[in-house]
Every structure is written in C-alpha cells, then in structure tokens.
C-alpha cells in the first residue's frame, strides 16, 4: 500500500487492488491480516459506497512500511537472512542436511519481506558459513556437472537445533566478538569481556514498546546510513523477540544488549543518549 501510494495510485485500497497472484495465495488470510493491521493502528478503515471497506495507511503504518522496506534493501540484513535461511532449510531436508543453492531460491526461507534473495547473495552467505565451519559446499566440475550442494556439518546441525540465529550462535561459541553491558557507579560501559552485574527484570511488552520507540526515532539520530541500518536491524530483532507467542527472556536480553550497544556507539547524539537512558532504565 505504501508503494502504491508512492506511485500515485491513491492512498485508499481494498483487497481487489492487490495483484491477482498475491490475492490467490493469501485469500484465506488477507482480510484477517487487514483487520489485524487496523487493530494495531497501522491501517485506517473507510467505507466507500459500492466498494465496501477500503484501507489507508496511518502515520504508524507509514513508519512500519518504511522500516520494512529499509530492512528488505539492507545488504547486511539480507546476508544475515540468507545465512539463517540456509541453515534452517538444510536442517529440514528430508534425508540429509543438504540442499542445493539454486533450489534454496524457491524455498520460503529465501524470501526477505516478500522479495527473493539473489543467487549471488546466497553464494556469499554460503561462503561465510563454510569459513565458520557450519557447512560444507560441494561444487561440480566440467566432467561431472553438479549444481552446488550445501551440507550442514556437526556444528551447523548444533546451530540449527539451538534455535539461535547464526550470528548469535557464533557469538555464543566465541567465533565473533561479543559485547556486554556493565554498570559500575552509575556509568554504562560497553566492550569485550565486560559482564552484566545488574538484575534483569522481564516484561516483554516494555521491551516491545522500547523497540518501537527506537524504530520511530532512528531516522532522527545523526549518524551515517550504514550505522542507522544496524540500529534498525537491532531494534527490529528486539521487536520480533519481544512480541512472539512466548518471548524467551534470554533471547530478548541478547536483542536488548544489541540495541544498547548500537546506541552507545552514537552517544554524542542527543536522541541516542535519551534512548540509551530509557533502555538502561528497563534493565536496571
């Protein structure tokens, strides 16, 4: 709906305005999803004579659309999605933890907010997983043509079974630098090796609200676009972890640490300072 409005096709739309293929695939969920977005305050419903209920993006809906489009186009976010998708898809293969890279492009795990990854992006992600020891990659040769096959190693299977993202799994196992927050004398310190000494109170709704606040304010933080993308990724992950059916405190905490780390990097910006103080208040 956001893109439709940007193309000058009007800001009011109903189910019949969506592409036929998309309507056919989502026919059992489309109206339910529209109603859910109305409940969330991201859509406004308007009754139009002879057309019935039509919908318009609210201010909150426009912000959410901008966030999703930003994530869909973000190169690092797409790479993280590709790595997680490859591990997940291979772990669900029928007979062995092996998938073809080209076949992966036809699987749901290759979709990033409705847009498919490219084969080049998938190959880069596969090379990353090979380098970290999570998978092996088998290519054919001229005499024996074979499309690239990716197979999970024992460590890769552990990653898939852990329910962690590839990034979190590698950090947890010492493959990537991990930053923790330490509070001493009222001063927040961030860096490798620091530990968390304060108690972590858990109310998922508070963390979800904080994530929404960060996403709404991220455009106003005075930083480079690349760093803004990281802040949006971290806040989006916190939102996802804290709004699921049964939020897991440990996963929410790790996501919260990521947001606070990103905000701490931009401590000279006033908006980032206020957000960081708000976030620290949730876990102090």
What does this entry look like structurally?
The protein is built from 13 helices and nine strands. It is an alpha+beta fold and 284 residues long. A hairpin with a 2-residue loop joins strand 8 and strand 9 (187-192). Helix 5 packs across helix 7 and helix 10 (204-217) packs antiparallel against helix 13 (270-283). 26% of the residues are buried. The model is unreliable at 176-200 (pLDDT under 50).
Mean pLDDT: 79
Strand proportion, as a percent range, falls in: 5-15%
Strand order of the largest sheet: 3-7-6
The number of helical segments is 13
Uncertain spans = 176-200
Structural class: alpha+beta
User: Radius of gyration, Cα only, in angstroms?
Assistant: 21 Å
Please give the alpha-carbon distance between the first and last residues.
Answer: 40 Å
Strand tally is: 9
Largest sheet, in brief, is: 3 strands, antiparallel
Order of helices and strands: HHHEEHHEHEEHEEHHEEHHHH
Please give the share of residues in helix.
40-55%
Global morphology = globular
